[in-house]
Write a structure and sequence with these properties.
Blueprint (H helix, E strand, L loop, with lengths): L52 E8 L5 E11 L5 E9 L4 E11 L1 E12 L6 E7 L4 E7 L7 E6 L11 H6 L7 E8 L3 E18 L2 E12 L5 H4 L1 H4 L7 E6 L5 E7 L8 E6 L16
Antiparallel strand pairs: 1-2, 1-14, 2-3, 3-4, 4-5, 5-6, 6-7, 7-8, 9-10, 10-11, 11-12, 12-13, 13-14
Length: 291
Amino acid sequence: MIDPPVTSHARITARIRGCFPYLCGLIFVAAFFVTLCETEARPIAVRFLEGLSHGFLLVRSSAGEIIGEGELIQVMKESGVTESRLVFRFKDGSLHDERVAFSQQRVFTLIRYQLVQRGPSFPEQIDVTVDRATSKYEVRSRMRENDNETILAGEIDLPKDAYNGMIVTTLLNLPKASSESVQVLAFTPKPMAIPLELSFVGEQVIWVGEQSRKGLQYTFKPDIGPIKKFLGKVLGKLPADFHYDCLILDDDVPSFVRFQGPLQLRGPILSIELTSPQAAGTPGDRKHVSK
């Protein structure tokens, strides 16, 4: 979640930001090392510069129940690097904490990626760090909270179009109603790059208050073929057309509307949408607001 950006109040990339995530960080767990795939890197050109943002999101279950809340803070540093942090806190105590640093000089370039996912909402408990400058990675993982932790560390040559935590940002910068292929790192548990198709599906009516607007529907489909033999039964439980869904506002300056998909490969399908802070209605309500 993969793969979400907020552009009405802020712009959030989730992946689902991930998502993948967003997509946040597509998390695959297996016991073997796989080399990077050799897909030709095609970085996404910058059409809209990312800047200062502070946005809020809701996380819903497939039944529509609110099960968590999200917050995105993004700043630009003097070095020209943009840093963002997306945090989802779930009612069951689970945490998704995703940090991304990237540059945007003509094209988007992922510089550093960190992801922590823990708690009962996540089949795997993981803590991932990848750094382009040092070519280093570290993956800490365990299948359950009480299991022994596995720690893997090494070197990786990040593809120029690797966009963990930036999928929706890259989507918003594509030409209108177009499709593209990028790459994301999957962790097996060592990182490998796999292709991710960002495919335009069609138009959809969305609502802004009582005003109807046009939305653009996309799917994010990972090519998990290269790692099938390492995931075995895990992949056998996935539908043949496994993908993520993302809806954006069709406008001269596009905006994120909704993301649907799991935050981990074997996790539950979630829906992530924008929300806004609300003022307390009466003086009595204010005593419930945390400081």
